[in-house]
Amino acid sequence: MLTFEQKLRNYSEIALNIGLGLKPGQRLLISCPVEAAPLARMVTEAAYRLETRLVEVLWEDDAVLLSRFQHSRHNNFDEVPHWHSRIHLEHAQRGDPILSIRASNPQLLQGQDPEKVRACNLAFSQSRARYLQEVYNNTFAWSILGVPTQGWAAAVFPDVSASQQQDRLWDAIFAATRADQENALQLWQDHIQNLQQQANLLNARKYTALHFKSPQTDLTIGLPEGHSWETAQHRTTRGALFFANIPSEEVFTLPHREQVDGRVSSTRPLVHQGQLIRNFTVQFKAGKAVHVQAEEGEAALKHLLSTDEGSAFLGEVALVSASSPIQQSGIFFYSTLFDENAASHLAFGQAYPGSLQGGLDMDRATFAAHGGNNSLIHVDFMVGSSDMDVDGILPDGTHEPVMHHGEFVLQNKA
Amino acid sequence: MLTFEQKLRNYSEIALNIGLGLKPGQRLLISCPVEAAPLARMVTEAAYRLETRLVEVLWEDDAVLLSRFQHSRHNNFDEVPHWHSRIHLEHAQRGDPILSIRASNPQLLQGQDPEKVRACNLAFSQSRARYLQEVYNNTFAWSILGVPTQGWAAAVFPDVSASQQQDRLWDAIFAATRADQENALQLWQDHIQNLQQQANLLNARKYTALHFKSPQTDLTIGLPEGHSWETAQHRTTRGALFFANIPSEEVFTLPHREQVDGRVSSTRPLVHQGQLIRNFTVQFKAGKAVHVQAEEGEAALKHLLSTDEGSAFLGEVALVSASSPIQQSGIFFYSTLFDENAASHLAFGQAYPGSLQGGLDMDRATFAAHGGNNSLIHVDFMVGSSDMDVDGILPDGTHEPVMHHGEFVLQNKA
């Protein structure tokens, strides 16, 4: 049984070694909430010990953001500072690694004026657009790490006493990321290899489409020619391996943007920039979400999908076993970083060019002509469950089971 | 007796109303240590209530800086991130106000390699040079506010139990800044008026030089033609009043850069970027510090004075009554922001162009030709004491007492 300090050190090392594949002589940028200073400091020290040349920390604070919504008397929510995105962009363009340490407080902007929230989110997305191009193009190594803050922990464990909530969320995060295991780095290497084998199996089949079927869902997702199933492990344009999300249990590829038809229901709530969207159904026609309905947060969802031309189309389809450790934990994290690893999921918005053969060398128009979707946003939502079957459709039109009752059943045919 | 919360609110209001003279519709930048998040959040809320258009907080962390000195295996301490200075510069050039919330941990870099400290300080000064031009030119309103951190409080109150140190430093800061008084804003208005009267008296005399005399000091400081005695209250080039330091008890002007001769001894330690310099004596000849000697930190002082051509010349002479509240408190703050208000002081480096009539419209060469000093640095050091006399030298060569035994004795001659 490791101490908290040892788990935290494991967590730092997973982030730097597995997440970023940090190399001596690099310059590391860390973004981090001010509340999580102890973790950022530990990562900083670990990075210097790994011979990082320079560590810079760009701090953030939800309370400062919330204060604007609560107390500003101006209606200028489309005015946001650009320096945060610019620092990220310049760093990415130099090819240096970026670690995002993130807390997610789902209740942060609840009750605030949705028009202001929307204007602010849009302006922020626009200011990040050029940076996200570098993300999608694998110009540099990046990874995302969760950190408990009081607001987030309270949302995840509302029935636990306030003094215990953050500890409970730390435990859940350590378990989900294997940081509570002695041999965490080795476990991660094994885990990545398992995911890669799954991706290889899927790639060998060259499906033209997937069919998702459950009592609430009946959806066909076309897959473009040349699509490639990937894990969160990517290679930068300079050839270095990194693993984008800590944790990650998925294999994913891109849908054909114009070949998604049918109906899909969410199986977990979606938390988007402090707003909760719950129990929603989306109807797709020729790729586009033409009708959405939600028990909670419908307006926020519709706002999200109207961000730009591509935001109502899909950019990702990801398969996750319904028995994944995060699903088994029974914890809803109110955070896509974790919750997307509990169930198969889709994403509205931008597709990863790396999911298409040659996609990294295409301009946006060419990428779209090959079926890839472009958008300012990329927002995952969970649709998998233990009563869902997924079939693969082969080029000759025959169907074969890929997942049955939420579990992978595809075997090596060789 | 005000509660802590009330004093903190007073402190925020002094910063925004007196310090920055904040106007509705402005965009406020705050720099702040992560440890002081509660104060930055309170100032943020207060600023939005005063109809600020947008509040941005640029967080800093001493621990991240220290980690580099402790753990980096590279010798690249002349490489520093430029974005911190650039954000300040862009903000200043737009004419928007900047509040610097500062903690000062005098022990931060003690024991670190002085060559690395020097390289890092120089690189940081160079990256700030363009921003400091905007500061010296009064392009925008700025003010500086102190905030206790554990490291700083421990240095100031080493004999107090650790759990009490920060509270004690808060008490000392609230007292020094009048934030512990009900009518704090009115007291500040009165205080500024008193300082202004002192400056007016000095300006009416048009001294050609000052003579500082005590058992340890015998120094003549020439004053250039057109010099102007000022308080910390300045007017931006757009015409708005601001008060640069909270607290401030001084009136100051610029010396003639080539007319400083004699010997001066420090009466308080000087803390410069985490290094302590104590009990030092400086010999001046034709303006330049030609010999320095220190009981502690002599190497750091010599490094400082060799920063650039102007760093060994004086840029400020300031008069502070030896009975000032901060001197009376008996507390050594290990922070120039406070300690310079306990005693008359001088500064190595850049002179304020606003201290010379027409100086704000001069380029650097013209300013120098009029006796103004240019440098990357501006570092105050305290020389006043209750056994010091200061004479003013009139254009006809006669001397008259300005301070006697550390107290102002100059009266209105009208």
Explain this structure.
The structure is a homodimer of 414-residue chains. Chain A is of the alpha+beta class and 414 residues long. Chain A folds into 2 domains: 4-176, 3-Layer(aba) Sandwich (Thermophilic metalloprotease-like), CATH 3.40.1830.10; 185-238 and 248-408, no CATH class. Chain A is built from 12 helices and 19 strands. Chain A has helices at residues 4-19, 37-49, 62-71, 83-93, 114-136, 150-156, 162-176, 184-205, 298-305, 325-328, 336-339, 364-369, and strands at 27-33, 54-60, 98-102, 142-146, 209-214, 217-222, 233-235, 241-243, 251-253, 260-265, 270-272, 275-285, 288-296, 314-319, 345-349, 378-382, 389-393, 399-404, 407-408. In chain A, strands 5, 6, 10, 11, 12, 13, 17, 18 and 19 form a 9-stranded antiparallel sheet that branches. A 4-stranded parallel sheet of chain A has the order 2-1-3-4, with helices on both faces. In chain A, strands 9-14-15-16 form a 4-stranded antiparallel sheet. In chain A, a hairpin with a 5-residue loop joins β7 (233-235) and β8. In chain A, α1 (4-19) crosses α2 (37-49), α4 runs parallel beside α5 (114-136) and α6 (150-156) packs across α7. The longest helix of chain A has 23 residues, at 114-136. The model of chain A has no long low-confidence stretch (mean pLDDT 95). Chain A binds chain B through residues 25, 34-35, 37, 40-41, 44-45, 48-49, 51-57, 59-61, 63-64, 67-68, 70-74, 76, 79, 81, 83, 86-87, 90, and chain B through 25, 34-35, 37, 40-41, 44-45, 48-49, 51-57, 59-61, 63-64, 67-68, 70-74, 76, 79, 81, 83, 86-87, 90.
